[in-house]
Amino acid sequence: MVGIGQESLREGESLIRVENLVVEFPGPRGSKLQAVSDVSFDVMAGETLGIVGESGCGKSTTAKAVIRMPPPTSGTVRYDDEDLAALTKEELRSRRTDLQMIFQDPISALNPRRSVWDIISEGVEIWGTHGVWTDARLTELISSVGIDPQYRDRKPFQFSGGQCQRISIARALALDPKVLICDEPVSALDVSVQAQILNLLDDLKTEHDLTMLFISHDLAVVRNVSDRVLVMYLGRVAEVGDADAIFDNPVHPYTQALLSAVPGSGIDNDGSLSGELPSPLDPPTGCRFHTRCSHATDVCKTTVPEFRQFGKDHWAACHNPQGTPVDIT
Ligand SMILES: Nc1ncnc2c1ncn2[C@@H]1O[C@H](COP(=O)(O)OP(=O)(O)OP(=O)(O)O)[C@@H](O)[C@H]1O
Ligand code: SF4
Ligand SMILES: [Mg+2]
């Protein structure tokens, strides 16, 4: 598969391959908080991989670990078939421009003291780019994200949230990235502005030939933008695969519960989420979802479920899946 440490069944190239990723942070009184626990997935060149899951499940930490901010505690991230951990500082620096990230809060992501022009061109000055950026090309870039270049000397506070997100996107694109990691890029924006930014990202993806990681807790948005989807629960992958398979035929009780909360999803409410999300400082044994799962049996409390395949590109880790595993050889 795509991402569970088995052979890829998909055609096309894997641009990013994450294997057995673990990210730990220091917790209170000498404890460790494992924000990401043994996560594996592939991102194929040219696709958008959506990452979903409740707050605190490790979406942002996973994405940041891909760009080594911070470097993972263990596991590997291969980009374009190179292990990023094995690169020298200089090599990593040159690859880092390929992988750019935009964040949820566009206003605080921009330096308030600098003009739009300085913000967008500063990355080019620091990092350099693959192409040659002239003032004319930067001006064109500013226009292409929907900002009038005549406002290039204005500061971020003179723009709305949506406009600041456009500026963040231009700043990222100025570095000629191959991968754009979008961490809740529209969550802080009004609904009408959300649609504009999503359309812009879609247009730019085609224009700049981008591969995208798209993190959101908004499942409707993820469905809209993603080719494939990764569902995370408490630091682990619950289900992963083709977006249509995940949204139309989820087999993991957690995915079903998440989707049942979306109006019009067609997934019934039997498995709707109840109970508190356990603390990542002391995650449940076995399947981490067992404390909230209406399908849990004894084995779920003791044994971490293995991934099984439910379609050509559809995988889930569950002892009692709500679908029949397939054997595709
Ligand atoms: N720098 C850090 N230091 C300590 N703990 C952290 C740090 N960053 C994240 N965490 C913890 O790691 C876990 C995963 O956090 P993360 O931000 O990746 O989740 P998320 O899925 O992006 O959540 P949200 O939807 O709220 O953005 C959480 O328990 C969080 O508190
Ligand atoms: S492994 Fe068990 S507890 Fe976990 S999702 Fe499946 S049925 Fe529920
Ligand atoms: Mg986050």
How does this model look, in words?
The protein is an alpha/beta fold. Helix content is 30%, strand content 23%. The protein has helices at residues 59-66, 89-96, 106-109, 116-127, 135-144, 161-173, 191-208, 219-225, 243-248, 253-260, 298-302, and strands at residues 14-26, 32-44, 48-52, 74-79, 82-83, 99-102, 179-183, 211-215, 228-233, 236-242, 307-311, 314-317. A hairpin with a 2-residue loop joins strand 4 (74-79) and strand 5 (82-83). The protein is globular, with a radius of gyration of 20 Å. Residues 5-11 have low confidence and may be disordered. Magnesium ion binds at residues 59-60, 183.
Bound molecules: adenosine-5'-triphosphate, iron/sulfur cluster, magnesium ion
Distance between the termini: 11 Å
Number of strands: 12
Residues in helices, as a percent range = 25-40%
The overall average pLDDT, rounded, is 90
**Residue windows where pLDDT falls under 50 for at least 5 positions:** 5-11
Sheet-strand content, in percent, reads: 15-25%
Helix and strand pattern: EEEHEEHEHHHHEHEHEEHHHEE
Please compute the radius of gyration using only Cα atoms.
20 Å
Total number of helical segments? 11
Overall, the morphology is globular
Largest sheet, spatial ordering of strands:
6-7-8-3-9-10-12-11
Summarize the structure.
The chain is an alpha/beta fold and 329 residues long. Helices cover 30% and strands 23% of the residues. The protein contains eleven helices and twelve strands.
Keywords summarizing the entry:
single chain; 329 residues; alpha/beta; 12 strands; binds adenosine-5'-triphosphate; binds iron/sulfur cluster; binds magnesium ion
